[in-house]
Amino acid sequence: MNLVKAVLAFALGLSIPAMSQQTRYAWAVDSQDVISRYASQWGVVGGLLVNVSVAQDNTVWGVSRPGEVWRWNGSGWDKMPGILTQISVGSATEIWGVNANNEIYRWNVAANNWDRVGGVARYVSVAADGAVWVLGTGDDIYLWTGYNWQVFNCKVHQISAGASQNVWGVDATNRVLRYSTLDGSQRWDFMPGSLKQVSAAADGEVWGINMTDDLVRWNGSGWDSLGKKAAQVSVGPAITGQHTVYPTRAWLNPALNMSASLPMNDPCPAGWRLPTKPEFDSVLAFAKTQADPAASLTSGFGATAGQNYLSSTPTYPGPSVGDLNSWKFWALFPATPAVAPLNTAFPSSADASDGTLPSAGIFARCTLLVPPPVSSDIAACSTQFTGAPDLRTFDVSTIQSLDLGRTISSGTSGFGAGQPVAPLTPKPQGGAYINYLGTDKRAKIMEIDARGNAVGTDQDLGPATGVAGVGTDGTTNAYLVKVTDQRLEFRVAGGAAPTVIMDNDVPANNGTVLFSGRGVRWATAPDNPPFGTQAMINPVTMHRAVVLPAGGKWFAVYDHANNFNAYANPPSNDVHYGVSITSFNADGSAPVMTLPWGTSHSIDMRTIFDGTRLIQLSLGDAFPTSIQARVVDPATASVTATSDLFQSSKFPDTQIGASNGQPIYGIAANGGGGVSGKLGDLVPVGCGQYALTYTIYPASYNLFGNPLTSTVNEMGLLILDKDLNVVKRAMLRRGDDVDVLKTARYGKSAIFVAWKTNGAEDYWSMLIDVRGTMVQSPQRLPAGIKFAANDGFVTLANGDIMWTNREGNALKLYRFPVGQ
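^ that's the sequence the OP posted. Answer follows.
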């Protein structure tokens, strides 16, 4: 169909077959280094290469036989820095290569040069979603976790990663293998046929070169000939029209030459849609908050450098039907294949002053609704979220702000920012409980259904000065109650008498409390008290305390202060805040001190139960200056593993100083509450892994006379395995302007991350997958939607995300209706 017919069909609302027809793109070189490009048919391209690689966004790089590096500019080759033997391109910003010395390099877009990556390899392949695989000199397979290499018990001689779930290889005997994660086993399966080389695309397409140099394509059970000889091939995307990439989603750019008087109908093929105005408004608004808006869009959101995209009037039409003549446009782009991710783009002759269109027409953009999943998203691995919707897009305009009709008090005034206001605990059968302190200074429990409506009458737990937490196993509830500023109790509904965990106002050695600040030592070990349990004061002042059912027991996790002058009251200045965990029988009896004193100088903490184990995290400002993680086995009520996540040479950028010539790693702090980082939230992501968000930002401190400096500036994600090893570290954005960070599971295949900007009532959110890849770009939360550091986000049984906040004395509930 020619362009005139296409325009006419579009104007009349007719179907346009050409728009939905896809063209497969691929590049190849032959035995004479001649380059060919495929776009419906093969054509020779000038130049000579021995190795060529095309990405999902059509970025193409290559290496010549002498090792020179070249980048395709659309009509020719630009010589780039470096000498390599092989190269792989996942996107315009993810280019990796190896040289003759088996050194690994990653392209640095900002520096326009290569960064050396640790390790040695002779072959590299980077996927469209950022997964990087290399082959060692002995054909061992390694997967890049972000800061180190995970080795596999398998060998291949050549490897190709189109996406995390489309990885193929060829071994030294030309057998074909495919990587599989469907059962969580991370295994390699042998496939039919014999190949010299294989190439996988992000969408599942696989091409190869057989033993007679014929180019072949995988048909699901075997290999079909493509009628061409080649020495090396790289198969790329299948797209309609021109193509660009915006985070992890593809944007189509069909050339629709439309008159200014025509209505705008949705031109997108099945499975795609026009972006909405809030999506693009949020991108522009976010860019404007950065020091260099142009660089922010160029490096973070897929725009092309040198294009004019900022305007004082960020308004444009809706996503379906509108009068073109009435539109005001806030961005101009040249009509080239290198387009920025906006709803409409115009030739340079467009006049934005009066909102009219030139006769040359416009280019419509379409966004893919559901990006490809990644390996850890397999529902079978995520037992806690198998009933949740599998969503990969979000719309923050749907967040509801509900006034629960309760007047609440903030409780006692502690100096810790984490003092809870109204902890929210999901019920397994749906809905949640909210623990709050009324203005009458009584602790209360409110029950809500899945839509945030009150259920029944609030439960009164009696006089209190602060709230601590409520736990539920679906049948029975248990509570931590801060009765006075110095007295913490544990109670089980209908169970044994309350257990007084600490009471700093009772006489010494009376045997009625577990521990206290007046010389009352741990009741079961009066002659040999564990370190740090001689003088406990100020419970639930710094952190979010939690009560969790696990293994037929209850576990209470809470903070308090330790007065090392154990027999003085009031306490001296030698006070340290830390974390303790106490376990109880199902009826609340038989308390056991699982963790007497953990992470001294703890600034913040998180604890979850994943169905098998308790995972507890604390951010320390001295012991350690890091994020400390520990595993608790419910069966034995004991800590079975501990790890300081950043105190390791695994992360060279987290070296914060040196002592006696030895490097110190971690997060810089001063031992007095100052720390150059924040703790986000811990989310189980299935397959025995956990996702943790955090911030580290540049700051210098002096700890016990030792200068410490953090240089990292990131809001990041760590993926931890069951043994608390860091298997992936991903930077999400800069961290120095993040005041509060929240995280929750979104559906069963994504993570919702939200943050408040430092020094402003400005709230943002983004969606990432469980590898830390951005799935949907940042959106500003609507006016009136806010959160504080005190209480966290929770994902309900139906997938909805909820959190609480206090406005004045009003208790507010925010509901993100994910599950509907």
